[in-house]
Every structure is written in C-alpha cells, then in structure tokens.
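Q: Could you fold this chain for me?
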Amino acid sequence: MQDTMIIPARKTIVACEIFTDELRAILPPEGDIDLVWLPVALHTDIGRLEREIERTLLLCRTGGAADLFVLYGGACSPSLDAILKKYNAVRPEAGNCLDVLLGSLKAEAEAERAFVLTPGWIRAWPSIMEAMGWEAIDVRMNLGRYEGIIVYDAGLKPLTDEETIGFFDLTERYVDVRPLGLEHFAGVMKRLLNGNRSRAR
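A: Sure. Below is the predicted structure, expressed as structure tokens.
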C-alpha cells in the first residue's frame, strides 16, 4: 500500500485525511490499494469539497483505476452520491466519518449531550478555524449546547496532555478521552472493499 495523489492501482480509496491514522492501521502494509487523501478543511466549503472529490475521481479514472472507493459520508455533501455514480465509485452507507469509525458509540456519546471527536479532528481544528474565519469565541458559541466533549482515541497517535488541555482552553468544555477499538471500522472497510456497501452501525 502506498500513499499517492493520483497513481491508481486495482483498488483506490479517496479519503478524507481525518481517517489517516485509523485507515493505515487496518489496511495491510503491502497490497493493491492506493490511498488518495483530501484535506479535512474542505468540509468548510461544500462546493469546493464536491469539486475536489469529482476532480480526484476523474483523475483516478482517466489514470486507469479499476475500483474506486470514497471514504466520506452522505452528510458531507448533498451531491456526493450523484458524483460517485458518475464515476462508478462507492462509499459506506454512513452519514459521516464518526458513523464509520465509531458505530453505536457515536449515539451513546450524543445521548450524553457530548460533542464527539477523534484525535484527528482535534488536530484539524486550527485549519478548520482558519478556513471558517473563526476565533475562540466562535468555537465556544457553536459548542455551547454541549455538556462536554468526548474524544474516542484508538491509541495510534494519542493526544498529548498539552493537546487535551489546549482544546479545553479553546472550547471551555471538559474533554473526556475514551479508548476506541477499530473492529467496527475494519468491518465496514472489509465489506466495502469486498463489494458489500455496509451501513455503518
């Protein structure tokens, strides 16, 4: 397996960078899968996200990719499925990345009135704030309805104390870091790559 911008193989996964650590952890180190990463901050501009996904799929197809998989959820873009159909690409039947990674854990955390994240999202936050033109006060206003923040950490690149405290200072919300197994995510990806679009639950 190799990270690449466009070089296609028999199977190519176009994925949001939010999955970087977890996806690398569950895929075999050597294989017939190429990974194409798109920046997390594209989520702040749906039109730009859609254009970048379509541009990337076109490049992969014209470059000879046989099987195309897209690691985004349906809630990331209202036009996503139409774009994927155009290039005969498939995705997990999930709303967003947290559904794919967490399964039922997401609903459990939301029942606690918590804002749910992974370490990747914590680390992407500065780029998101920059793209949105947000300052700390904007973050706090947008997270004001949540009781706290739950971070599900698979232990691949654990959050440091400084990162945890820094996010607490930014949001003024308690940050609860909980362990995450990758069995659910691995199952979703196995079924997806084997041709069974699985609903991430």
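A (continued): The longest helix spans residues 46-62.
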